[in-house]
Write a structure and sequence with these properties.
Elements (H helix, E strand, L loop, with lengths): L1 H17 L3 H15 L6 E5 L3 E2 L6 H16 L3 E3 L2 H7 L13 H11 L3 E8 L3 E8 L5 E8 L34 E3 L5 E6 L5 E8 L3 E9 L6 E6 L5 E5 L8 E7 L2 E9 L6 E9 L15 H13 L10 H17 L3 H13 L8 H17 L3 H13 L10 H14 L2
């Protein structure tokens, strides 16, 4: 009977959680966001209105604004900037899902409202919410939370418009016209830098596949304000796949099997009013672990031990909230990749480690300017020497305050061992 009662109580708790409304979820995420904030108290904060990634607004999002305002108002550490002033200042601003606010925008809100902090809430994909507290002075992210709504926000607009189906093809989307000023051709295993230089611009690239393969197509932003969007079409004009944020952060990634033929890859901005640069790369997806390519004065098992040692130096408060649930498995995966000489898997684990360090715990210039390029270099590394150099670079951009106090005494020896692998 006691066990049955526990099961009933557990079921009731789960049922209640599943019945949470969107407003309740927004309130809970706002509370978590404020709980994670460890900055100074008595700060003036500007709360940006909830909106979608493509700058759209509806009645439900306006209701979310009231929920956020109530929670922040109850937290006595903050002084809220009057809403009408914020709406006036931000009327013509543009945001991406990352919540990035450029220096000019931060400066404007700081001068006009006196705010020291900005709270930016975004909805993407109609169910995903992303909330950040950003420092006006430095642009650093001081607190971050990502969550999922219980139900999609009220319909009436589309986050990522798809090409209009052709009348002759019964739902098969036509290949968009080659855009002016962008595109060309790209080979399997190749990469090219590009940029969207006009609103609504689309860069098209031709890809020739000689034999059946599983390919990975990536569009990684090289401009922190840019949010790339990928589309893949076959030679008949039918859309095979599209993607927004399957890569790290706002980067786009498509992994799919392709038969021999000619394909078209389209890169565009998620928000058609945002301009920016990107790096497009196409390579064969690894169905088997990539062989370790050698290089350096050590082995992958030694590297695994050093990577785990680095991870244990990071304070929990400097890592994402979901990392605690994944960390134990990650450590086991690192050890397994080292023991099995799985170099490709080890690169993925290095990227995962870095991705779970909060931006506020890394140098601001690293997050804004260097991280995207670093990710690309990790993916393309083909020796232990290269990978150890990249991990050293990552460590050098982690703030001392984000690491255990004992790390300063350990760091020198750790660096020497990591450098010996080069």
């Amino acid at each position: 009977m006691q066990i049955s009662r526990k099961i009933i109580i557990l079921f009731a708790v789960m049922l209640a959680a599943s019945c949470a409304t969107n407003k309740e979820i927004v309130r809970d995420n706002t509370k978590t966001l404020l709980k994670k904030y460890r900055g100074e108290s008595n700060q003036k904060i500007a709360i940006i209105p909830f909106m979608t990634k493509s700058q759209q607004k509806n009645a439900e999002l306006e209701a979310f604004d009231d929920e956020v305002m109530d929670i922040v108002f109850d937290d006595k550490r903050f002084q809220i900037v009057e809403r009408s002033l914020v709406e006036q200042i931000t009327k013509e601003w543009t945001f991406s899902e990352s919540g990035m606010v450029d220096e000019e925008q931060r400066s404007k809100i700081g001068k006009l409202s006196g705010a020291k902090l900005i709270l930016v809430p975004i909805v993407s994909g109609q169910k995903n919410i992303n909330m950040r507290i950003i420092s006006v002075g430095t642009g650093d992210v001081l607190s971050y939370v990502r969550g999922n709504l219980a139900t999609p926000i009220i319909a009436g607009f589309s986050e990522a418009p798809r090409p209009t189906p052709s009348k002759k093809s019964s739902g098969i989307s036509p290949v968009p016209a080659i855009p002016s000023g962008g595109g060309g051709s790209i080979a399997l295993g190749g990469a090219v830098n590009g940029a969207i230089t006009q609103p609504g611009g689309r860069d098209s690239y031709t890809l020739n596949i000689q034999s059946s393969k599983t390919v990975e197509i990536r569009a990684d932003r090289t401009d922190t304000s840019f949010d790339p969007y990928l589309e893949l079409y076959n030679n008949s004009g039918g859309m095979i796949a599209s993607d927004d944020d399957s890569g790290e952060g706002l980067n786009s990634k498509i992994v799919t099997g392709l038969a021999p033929g000619i394909y078209t890859i389209v890169v565009r901005a998620y928000n058609t009013n945002i301009l920016g640069s990107y790096r497009l790369s196409v390579f064969e997806a690894m169905s088997q672990p990539a062989p370790y390519m050698g290089g350096g004065g050590g082995n992958l098992s030694t590297f695994a031990d050093l990577l785990i040692q680095l991870e244990t130096s990071i304070n929990y408060s400097a890592q994402t909230s979901s990392w605690r649930g994944r960390r134990s498995s990650w450590i086991n995966d690192v050890r397994s990749a080292g023991a099995s000489n799985n170099f490709q898997r080890m690169k993925d684990l290095v990227i995962e480690f870095e991705a779970n360090i909060l931006s506020s715990s890394q140098n601001g210039s690293w997050v804004r300017n260097s991280r995207g390029n670093w990710l690309n270099r990790v993916r393309s590394a083909n020796s232990l020497g290269e990978l150890s150099t990249l991990v050293l670079e990552c460590e050098s951009n982690i703030l001392y305050t984000a690491q255990a106090g004992t790390w300063r005494n350990t760091r020198s020896g750790w660096m020497s061992r990591m450098q010996s692998l080069r």
